[in-house]
Amino acid sequence: MSAAHTRESDRRTASEPGAGRAEAVLSIRDLVVEFTTPAGTVRAVDSVGYNVGRAETLGVVGETGSGKSVTVLSALGLLRAPNLRKVTGQVLLDGESLLDLPDRELRRRLGRDVAMIFQDPISALNPVQRVGHQIAEGIRVHDPGVSAKAARARVVELLGKVGVPHPEARFDQYPHQFSGGMCQRAVIAMAIANRPKVLIADEPTTALDVSVQAQILELLRVAADETGAATVLITHDLGVVAETADRVCVMYAGRVVETAGVEQIFAQPRHPYTASLLNSLPRLDMPAGRLTPIPGQPPDLVDAAPGCAFAPRCPIGRDRAVCHERRPELLPADLAGPDGQASPGSGPASFSACHFPAEAAGLVGAGDSGSPGRPAVTDGASSATADDASHETTDDAPHEATEDASDRPVLRITEVVKRFPVRSGVFARPSAWVHAVDGVSLRIRPGQTLGLVGESGCGKSTLARLLLRLHEASSGEIVVDGDDVGRAGKAELRRIRRRVQMVFQDPYASLNPRLTVGDNVAEPLRLDGGFSRAARRRRVLELFGRVGLRPEHADRFPSEFSGGQRQRVAIARALALEPRLLILDEPVSALDVSVQAQVLNLLDDLQRESGMAYLFVSHDLSVVRQVADEVAVMYLGTVVESGPVERVYADPRHPYTRALLASVPVPDPAGRDRRRRTPLGGDVPSPSDPPSGCRFRTRCPLAEQRCADEEPPLRPTAGGRTACHFAEDTHHLRQPAVRP
Amino acid sequence: MYAYLVRRMLQFGVVLVLGSIAVWAFVYALPGDPATVLAGPDASDAELAATRDRLGLDRSVVEQYLSWLGSALTGDLGTSYYAARTVTETLADHIPATVQLAVAAMGIALLIAVPVGTVVALKPHSIAARALQGYLTAGLAIPAFWLGLLLIIAFAVQLNALPAASDYVPFWEDPGQALRHTILPALGIAVHASTVIARFLSTSLSEVRGRDYIRTARAKGVPERDVVRHHAMRNAALPTITIVGIQLGAFLGGTVVIEAVFNYPGLGRLLYTSIGERDYAVVQGGVLFVVATFLCLNLLVDVVYAYLDPRIRLA
User: Fold this and answer.
1) Which one of A65, A143, A320, B62 has the fewest beta carbons within 10 angstroms of its own beta carbon?
2) Which chain A residues have any C-beta within 8 angstroms of a chain B C-beta?
3) Which residues cross the membrane (chain B) (predicted)?
């Protein structure tokens, strides 16, 4: 490192938040991480720096590829990619430089002074070792004097502390015997076993269900409080950050673009990317209006251009020369605040890497000037006029809770059941049945969207597959556009499938990698047979235009596209035969927030043009609220509540719906302490042995004897349908933070 | 787990029956009367009649098979007409030799494969790994008989250190002599197997090293050596065990070529000569033994698998 460079980085870090403060336990300075790829050198982390103080929680937010995980992994020497080119900069743990330590010395600090919690808890544990032993190993490796017996006692105590029931028995179990949430508890126990000074959680709840997420976030907070550890919470979820962080660091394209206190970030972001991210987020605490996506995609990090990486997508850049020529440094942005009340020293400072930080603050709540007429998501503190405007746009679609006979539904399913056998024993006879879908009735009218929400394993995806007879229903009736799917012969089934198309979750796996995207889209047309080669080509280009892809892309292969673009290709393919019903199975859950908003808006436009009906399956309550007219909430194979979207979200009557809604992290730090969360306890019971009576009763705060004896029917309640004996009495349960 | 093992055993039984039918039927598929086939070309009329009588050729096919299976299960596999001994005795003479050779060969193969596979997986860019890659390619390509000949030329002809033709000396009677006689043929077949096993091990080890739980172990502060030993190896061993089982099965089935090259009195050479001499009773018995051994090893692999992988054991 040259002397000049050192001086410059010293100057910068000295001005960064927390620097110089004695309590900065972990300090990352000027970290650069580069990879060698066939396309060239990728600078995945570019002069990143942040500090975390004792007992402080720093939220690091960013989309895929922003470098947020690579930063910490390389800082701790855990990055083992063979194409890792270099890691430079400084990582100070309690004043000690980690990057200069030999591997053995570094290992001595890992797990003792700094501990990590990973994204996918099930794969983070060794499948062939007992969970207890894996935790004990973390204790004994740093303190070989601890006897096996003492370690066991300590681990059992830890497991109890992190909320694993029956810790003594659980000690000897293997990871596959744990649920995802329980695995993450075990990983947290492992992380806090040595009372580390720094706790780094890398997307700790991304792989978990929303009700379990709430439990884990609460547990992390308690763990940090108890150990007094500095916490770095890496996430893509702005809601999680708003709920947990003290300070926030926003990353984009390998750089920190903004850091500030959590309230400041959400109320007055000083970087247009932060503001745009907030605007593109569907959220429960705001009226459901049209989203304002960030146009384009994150940049390629190979040979990055000299200017601001966000400039091509920036709503305030207006192609100003400085944005393209000079890379903005991360500088204090307090003085530029519109209120003029910069108060250095009191409260965390705000830093922005934007040439025009003052303009960025104006973006929040003001909407995207480039798309007039789109109601913006508004800042919670701003006036209510925007709220009213957006409210109306969602209300112009008619919602009748009553069934209208004249309006023939595109899809009508009645008492549909799907059971899967659990085979066991010597002859693999079905010894039990998983009741994946158990007596579900739904209907969708033309041009409407039914949102099907529920946690993993509730049967929502199975139900979606039954509609196309990708699985055979065990019983019940599925009628698409007047045709009975269950009784259809081969030829008829083909005709039905032409009218019902599906878009899957993973756009990487659902396109044939050996066909060009154009051929992928043309495949339904080819199978249909009625199109000449030229007609197919014309139709493909037309479809490309409709989903916002450029016609010249048709001859490229899927590998050349980003996730969002691939999902557009998948949607184009689904549209090829002008279906009457589109089944969307978690279509945006693999996409980043900014791209997700683009796809949601696209779906909205397509529906308005064509009058297609959607079945939108998702675990994400905010997304479903954004797109759906009607909602059905599933739990363990049954619908527990359904009705128009306003009714279900604003006036949920089922305790499960209420708990789910209350578990969703709200991307607004204001008043988070008042939103006292008592998240839903426990895990979803096994669908092979569901509880008697009401299936939710084992986790329900209202459950009585009657709930075990009698299964509550899905009955009309307050303009929707609720399957709860006490649907009229659930008001006193925690109020979800949904704003109509 | 017991259900799993019982299920595997039942499958084992079914395959064994099917295998035995194939083995039994093959003498019937040969041209001529099975009795002439089994009794041999120079059999007298009386011998032929006795064989016919034993086979019960006038009875139904099912009865014939069942009576053959019944005698096979009680150890009566017929008589080798050349040696004028029962097939069972003949096999019993040769099987221990093959077992000793197979065990020695597998021992050598593992001694080579485990370190080679580990180095190639853990330090893929080191000079050692590059050299070992060369060994893996060459070892896979060299035919066993040619390697055997090279070994004979080097150690027996040039150095005169080891016998060119190997006898079977039971290990427990004279370990030194046993080693002298076994090491060359064992090495001859071990090289090929070691490359196969090493490739499997290094592939699964480098795959396992990229798993999340390895990162977790490192983040816990476990030294790299223990990360490999406690976390990576056991997981990487699982797929490797299958291939070790298959290779050992092939060894026990008689390594016909190498035994022929070294004139080693094992099952392979026995089968080889018996085929040449049309001693089909011996061939039949030998093949039946090979099939049963192979299946037993597969079962053993399943048991080891279940032992090592709790996801199977506790399913």
Assistant:
1) B62
2) 76, 78, 80, 82, 103-104, 107-112, 115-116, 118, 120, 123-129, 134, 137-138, 141-142, 174, 176-177, 187, 190, 424-428
3) 12-30, 101-122, 134-158, 178-201, 236-262, 282-308
